[in-house]
Design brief:
Elements: H1 10-23, H2 27-43, E1 54-58, E2 64-68, H3 75-83, H4 89-96, H5 100-112, H6 114-129
Antiparallel strand pairs: 1-2
């Protein structure tokens, strides 16, 4: 275990102390747990740093799905529009109201992550053929 001096703003320290007390642990233990939780969450991020305009979102099914950052637009929707409906990136961008550059990056992401995107497209196609009700 290593030591690290930590300076906290007074208000944050007071709130952390209150939470530590509620948890029945020392402030040091609370900060250790909070740090471990945050590092664990960051380690589980799936974003590809080569594509900053694409991020993952967990839908109702819990399956992480790549979307255009800042929107709910799935990368697979852009791929479908481009490949099946033969829309250009500019047409897709206009349709969704996003910058062309973001659509171009989504399509590049799809090429780099081809197997993942194809799997999602196939899964969606299967679900759309299942009887509802």
């Amino acid at each position: 275990m290593s030591r690290y001096p930590l300076n906290l703003p007074q208000q944050l320290k007071q709130e952390a102390e209150a939470w530590a007390q509620k948890q029945g642990v020392s402030l040091n233990q609370f900060i250790l747990w909070a740090t471990a939780e945050k590092v664990g969450a960051l380690n589980q991020q799936m974003d590809d740093p080569g594509f900053p305009q694409v991020t993952y979102r967990r839908g109702a099914s819990g399956v992480p799905t790549p979307v255009l950052r800042g929107t709910g637009i799935r990368v697979q929707a852009a791929v479908t529009a481009n490949e099946q409906w033969e829309m250009t990136p500019a047409q897709i961008a206009d349709e969704y109201g996003v910058p062309v550059k973001q659509i171009e990056e989504a399509l590049a992401f799809a090429r780099a992550h081809r197997q993942e995107i194809e799997s999602q497209i196939l899964m969606e196609a299967r679900l759309s053929k299942e009887p509802h009700g």
